[in-house]
Amino acid sequence: AAVAAAPQPFRQRYWLHLLLLILTLYTTTLVGARLAYNFDHNRPAFDLESDLPAYSEMWMDPRQLLPGLPFSLTLLVILLAHEFGHYLACVYYRVDASLPYFLPAPTMIGTLGAFIRIRGPIYSRRALFDIGVAGPIAGFVFLLPALAIGLVYSKIIPEVAGEGSFLFGTPALLWVLQKAIFPGVDPAAIYLDPVARAAWIGVFATALNLLPIGQLDGGHILYAFVGEKHRKLSRLFVLLLVPIGIVYWYGWLFWAALLFFFGHRHPVIYDQAPLGAKRRNLGLVAALIFALSFMPNPFQN
Q: CB of 57 within 8 A of CB of 92?
């Protein structure tokens, strides 16, 4: 995600970026270690009744964290690729931006993601489009092989795959890969390897960022195509989240409210030079990635 801010003098705080990265590595490795234990012992991936006491034990014995590194490193590489896609595009266009900030958190995945802060103005539609689209495409390039590799090491355990405190939804991308790697197997019977679960989180983050609303990556791409119509279309897409939230996942109602009150505006871009055929094609690629990644019901409990 790329978050725009008012222009002001800016100095990189390298120590803060490093500290947040280390803390996020720890929290995601903690989650990954428990996922690996549950996977190896054919237990439900998320079972809060037994998982929470196990986290306390791992705090006392850090050696138990090592099996969690495949999950955490896969997830952090995907998030890092996404944010560096934005950052390098900003460097190319000489737009002042921060290095990625990671957000450690005591959540079921160990993080709230990552973001960069864009401090300088973006003057042209082409620069806005390139900065917006670079993150999702870079992240997708890394999550796609991770998801495929993770699926290869996944298991077919019908009696366990559908159990637990939380169940993940199935995006179209995962469904296609499951059909290719496990032909004839019910996707609901496939118990995902921790690496595949890390890639799944990357898929969900990609879909969230590509929502064509406000200053999300999808919002930047939308503005580059439609200009001032962006505000009305952002409101329309926010409203579309409401019935999806009511029918499938209440979390979309939270995002609809958050984006309606804080996220549907966009800074004006004055250079209206046409995007050109190559960028229009990249826009179609971004739309395809969104279609493959979006899930009406990403979480169940």
A: no
- Quote the pTM value: 0.92
Distance separating alpha carbons of residues 156 and 166, to the nearest angstrom: 18
Helix (H, G, I), strand (E, B) or coil at 13: coil
- Contacts for 131 with CB less than 8 Å, ≥ 6 apart: 2, 86, 89, 90, 93, 95, 118, 122, 220
Q: Is the per-residue pLDDT at 85 higher than 70?
A: yes
Are the beta carbons of 58 and 30 closer than 8 angstroms? yes
Angle at 213 between CA 75 and CA 245, to 5 degrees: 75
> Which amino acid is it at 282?
L
List, in sequence order, every beta strand (DSSP E) within 165-222. 167-168, 190-191
Q: To the nearest whole number, what is the mean pLDDT of the chain?
A: 90
Q: How far apart are CA 270 and CA 40, in angstroms?
A: 56
Structure tokens at 102: 């990671």
The values of phi and psi at residue 122, to 5°, are -110, 120
Q: What CA–CA distances, in Å, run from 36 to 44, 197, 225? A: 11, 11, 44
* 228-271 pLDDT, tens digit each: 888 899 999 999 999 999 999 999 999 999 988 876 667 777 77
- Distance (Å, whole) CA 268 – CA 256: 23
Please list, in sequence order, all residues whose beta carbon lies within 8 angstroms of the beta carbon of residue 293, skipping any fewer than 6 positions away: 171, 172, 173, 203, 204, 206, 207, 210
* pLDDT above 90 coverage of the chain, percent: 70
On the 0-12 / 13-18 / 19+ scale of CB atoms within 10 A, 257 is middle
Q: Which amino acid is at 236?
A: L
